Amino acid sequence: MEFLTHNLAPIMFAGLILFLLLGFPVAFSLGACGLFFAFIGIELGVLPEALLQALPLRIYGIMQNDTLLAIPFFTLMGLILERSGMAEDLLDTVGQLFGPVRGGVALAVIFVGALLAATTGVVAASVISMGLISLPIMMRYGYDRRIASGVIAASGTLAQIIPPSLVLIILADQLGRSVGDMYKGAFLPGLMLTGFYALFIIALAIFKPHMVPALPPEARTLREADGKSGMPSLLVLTVLCVGASIFVGKHMAELHTWWTGEAVERVALDETIVVAMCFGVALAFVAASINRLTHLNLLSKVAERVTFVLIPPLLLIFLVLGTIFLGVATPTEGGAMGALGAMIMAMARRRLDMALLRQALMSTTKLSCFVLFILIGATMFGLTFQGVDGPLWVEHLLAGLPGGQLGFLIVVNVMVFFLAFFLDFFELSFIIVPLLAPVAEKLGIDLVWFGVLLAVNMQTSFMHPPFGFALFFLRSVAPAKAYVDKVTKKIIEPVTTMQIYAGAVPFLVIQLVMVSLIIAFPGIVSSGLDEKVDYDLDKIRLEMEASMPPAMDFNDPTFGAPGEAASPDAAPEGAAPAGEDDPLKAMQESLQRDAAKP
Predict the structure, then answer these.
(1) Under 8 Å CB-to-CB from 493, ≥6 apart: which residues?
(2) What is the rounded distance in angstroms from the CA atom of residue 193 to the CA atom of residue 463?
(3) Membrane-spanning regions, if any (predicted)?
(4) pLDDT score, position 569
(5) 477 Cβ contact partners less than 8 Å away, ≥ 6 residues apart
(6) Burial label, 422 (beta-carbon count in 10 A; 0-12, 13-18, 19+)
(7) Environment class of 154 (CB within 10 Å of its CB; exposed 0-12, middle 13-18, buried 19+)
(8) Does the pTM exceed 0.85?
(9) What's the pLDDT tens digit per position in 302-316?
(10) Phi and psi for 492 in degrees, rounded to 5?
């Protein structure tokens, strides 16, 4: 019994692992483990019976958590967009745009995956959409099946790190930090990861072109009426818009100063990127609209189509992320506006009906209930774990690691990487993060930076063979048997499970490289955050004292007689001496003298 009493925390954690390995649902495993060890702790006298009285209050606090409202809003937005045909239009147009170059379809998948991540935030929707649309095209024209499956799965997981990401909302709630700060910190790492994926495909196109061939001429249907490509017009429009965005980005501080009327020396990097990109997008939309309305034919039809296909998702990105980064809306409000914007876009495409809305609402409700049940179970587990001094045990276990901060970060990331083989990001966020956050904060690690680092690491949970969820999603839509292609009339061989696993490995390595870069260069995350303002409390106190009127001596007998100065000799017993500039100290001394009297 004595061993059990002194080691209840590690035994409790081992019991949770056993529950999970036996295959019980995570939410019920957490709750059952918490209640079971709570009763054991009460019987052993380790825990007070009143501990369980705090559970209803904690559950009620979960229901009052406004931050978690962003989860159903962003989920609904993503599901409506996924079913409104936006992904199909994007993949078709961007695939035709990049098709003439080697690896063009794979680059289009990466680009569209980033756009879907910034609008849907749902991995399953992105992977399934791109698997249904792009995988048959890549198989039809000779792409290596490992690269085709790997790039689709990896591009879908960008929804984990590019805002608005559900995992960032959960991490912000568990770490006690702002969702907006988490979004700002993750913005640049998400863009860098997208760039690394694209560089990998470009390297394959250079050194192994047979793995990523270009589309043949007969597959390029996006052309002008006279047979020309129409690319020069699109190139000119792109150069003008990019130049305008760069100009706005370089003069963002001056624009802020002009807009607010106050001198602004520095603007956050994420805000600069969003506003500059939105200016370039708006310029392209205005140019394309004027060209279509006036029939000037200054732009090719290809340029018009690309512009009008890309504008809606980019506009939605600004509506959601732009308002959050600019401080106009909270993440919950941004999610609500995004859901409304998705409905408007679906109505404009004439894709919104009651069946689609009912299906999206049902899926949103299921996911939201799934998250809340896990959170309630984690709350029960965490309450008991804190009662048996579990956080203190974890702190002693991790804070004493050699290497200080670096040693802690290496061990934590290796642990999260291997746990991601068996647990998804919801379970990792609710079980592991609350145990790691106090230790990280005591070691002086910024929790926003720590949260983004964990988010990038947790992204690997979707790519781990053999349990990666993105691989399961792709397996569900990839052809398992040979079939006859409708266009070429050729027999297409199936995609095997081992090919999907092999294709995920290079992108998994890229994700781990990104984790290492964030540890080595913390500015990748911190550069997107607002600059912290350090306040000098001593200086503030001196300024406050200087602004206050001089202290008045109410014990002075000449008080109230203008023009007459008080004499120190005339002060009665117990009065503060003249010239005393601290009335609180004088009052304290007077009370001490009164207390000393018999």
Answers:
(1) 482
(2) 14
(3) 7-28, 34-55, 67-85, 105-135, 147-171, 186-207, 233-253, 273-294, 306-326, 332-348, 369-388, 408-436, 466-484, 505-525
(4) 47
(5) 128, 131, 132, 135
(6) middle
(7) buried
(8) no
(9) 888 888 888 888 888
(10) -100, 125
In angstroms, what CA-CA distances link 76 with 79, 119, 338?
5, 11, 9
Beta bridge partners of 492: 483
Q: Which residues, 6+ apart, have CB-to-CB distance to 250 below 8 Å?
A: none
- Average pLDDT (5-29) is 80
Token look-up 């200087």 returns 546
- What does the block give as tokens for 400? 């004493």
Structure tokens at 438: 């106090």
H or E stretch at 484: strand 483-484
Which DSSP symbol is given to 218?
G
pLDDT tens by residue, 162-210: 887 888 888 888 888 888 888 888 888 989 999 999 999 999 999 998 8
Distances (CA, A) of 182 to 26, 91, 163, 326, 451: 26, 29, 9, 14, 7
Sequence-distant (6+) residues with CB within 8 A of 354 are none
Residues 336 and 184: beta-carbon distance below 8 Å:
no
Contacts within 8 Å (CB) and 24+ apart, 36-44: 37/8, 37/11, 37/12, 37/384, 37/388, 38/380, 38/383, 38/384, 38/387, 40/4, 40/8, 41/8, 41/384, 41/387, 41/388, 44/1, 44/4, 44/5, 44/8
Tell me the C-alpha distance between 197 and 217, whole Å. Answer: 26
Non-local (6+) Cβ contacts of 511 within 8 A are 154, 193, 456, 457, 459, 460, 463
